[in-house]
């Protein structure tokens, strides 16, 4: 098999063959306990790995729940399952628990699959495999095209998958998403083995499968787009109050929060701290489509913040949990800035030599933390221990511990 770089760069690759229909046609949507039991039995009796995908309704519905789950396995064919109609899919997850699950960008789908009772014990992530193999484009369509020579149908990834019934073109698209995942997995495994990177990938896949559920974000309202404009504590209080109210309304209505009130509108209200409903209505995002009763709800939230004592208002930023932004290192700690510059250059050079993204070689945050607070004696062994403490896998430690240790011994700049 040719090197991934040659594959991507070759000008002699024939035009991709359009993949228009699943091999066995579009399967009926599984939407009842009886139909689900048949699917469970079929996939339990199947053989080999299981291709798995999930479709969400991001931008339309509240949260990230799965509205369609697609699977394909040798001996079982393809299944399209409606988890809203079927409920939990724990029995299905148990039936394929011992199989390797093949997903593309696994970390995007695993949370919503876990929510309905499906958790893999082992997996193969075709997107991550593509990154490690050095492919310049790692979207599913690009990977299928460059590795297998087929062109997948595009255009339905961002639709409202909570729609019922699902249109046939959407179901065709969904079935095709798992049609070639097993073939793609096999080709990428061969590519990684040829490049000497298969063990790296297996360690990454094991880490993903074993990772605990993500912890809830602290102060999620601070991620409101445009927050950098908001500086005063009472203005921050308005953002927090409006964000929290919006989230409650969105959850109650089961719609995306952005469809209740945009981030831009929240920030506009925070900057203005409007005096009354009329002033609020004049702000961007609170125009004609917002009724009087809704305006009063939002203005009541603003009034609550106006009445808050100073002690209850949020602080300008969350408590720092790590090194400061690198742009401030040169002033605060020139020696640390020199270490970071040397470490970044060394890691970048190593990533280029290995033909993989720097962030997959080692987390940039890990590099920053080690450079800000290095071991007292920055030997390769001491650096390796720090890297392991930050969750680096053995293959990563083996490749970067020496180069980072050398960077940590970079002389401090003269005053």
TrEMBL record:
Domain HRDC residues, every copy: 232-312
Pfam family, one: DNA_pol_A_exoN
Region feature (Disordered): 1-22, 308-333
Top-rank lineage group of the source organism: Bacteria
Biased composition (Pro residues): 315-327
Gene3D superfamilies reported in the protein's UniProt record: HRDC domain (1.10.150.80), Ribonuclease H-like superfamily/Ribonuclease H (3.30.420.10)
SMART domains per the UniProt record, alphabetical: 35EXOc, HRDC
Protein name: HRDC domain-containing protein
């Amino acid at each position: 098999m040719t090197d991934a770089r040659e594959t991507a760069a070759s000008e002699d690759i024939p035009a991709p063959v359009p993949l228009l229909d699943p091999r066995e046609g579009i399967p009926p949507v599984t939407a009842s306990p009886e139909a689900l039991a048949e699917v469970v039995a079929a996939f339990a009796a199947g053989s080999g790995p299981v291709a798995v995908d999930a479709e969400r309704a991001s931008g339309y519905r509240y949260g990230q729940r799965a509205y369609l789950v697609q699977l394909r396995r040798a001996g079982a064919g393809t299944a399209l399952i409606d988890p809203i109609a079927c409920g939990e899919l724990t029995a299905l997850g148990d039936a394929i628990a011992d199989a390797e699950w093949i997903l593309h960008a696994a970390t995007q789908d695993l949370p919503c699959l876990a929510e309905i009772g499906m958790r893999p014990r082992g997996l193969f992530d075709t997107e991550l495999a593509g990154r490690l193999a050095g492919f310049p484009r790692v979207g599913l369509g690009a990977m299928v095209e460059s590795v297998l020579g087929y062109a997948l149908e595009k255009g339905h990834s961002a639709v409202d998958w909570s729609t019922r019934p699902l249109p046939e073109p959407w179901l065709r698209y969904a079935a095709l998403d798992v049609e070639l995942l097993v073939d793609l997995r096999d080709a990428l495994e061969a590519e990684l083995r040829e490049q000497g990177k298969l063990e790296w990938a297996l360690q990454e896949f094991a880490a993903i499968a074993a990772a605990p559920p993500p912890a809830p974000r602290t102060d999620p309202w601070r991620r409101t787009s445009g927050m950098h404009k908001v500086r005063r504590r009472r203005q921050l209080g308005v953002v927090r109050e409006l964000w929290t109210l919006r989230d409650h309304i969105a959850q109650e209505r089961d719609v995306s929060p952005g469809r209740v009130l945009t981030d831009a509108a929240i920030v506009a209200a925070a900057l203005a701290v409007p005096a009354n409903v009329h002033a609020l209505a004049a702000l961007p995002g609170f125009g004609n489509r917002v009724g009087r009763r809704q305006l009063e709800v939002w203005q009541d939230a603003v009034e609550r913040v106006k009445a808050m004592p100073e002690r209850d208002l949020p602080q300008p930023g969350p408590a720092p949990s790590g090194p400061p932004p690198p742009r401030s290192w040169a002033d605060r700690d020139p020696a640390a800035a020199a270490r970071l510059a040397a470490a970044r250059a060394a890691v970048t050079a190593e990533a280029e030599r290995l033909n993989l993204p720097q962030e997959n070689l080692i987390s940039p945050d890990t590099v920053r933390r080690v450079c800000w607070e290095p071991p007292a004696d920055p030997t390769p062994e001491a650096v390796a221990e720090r890297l392991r403490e930050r969750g680096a896998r053995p293959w990563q430690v083996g490749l970067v511990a020496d180069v980072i240790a050398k960077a940590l011994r970079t002389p401090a700049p003269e005053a």
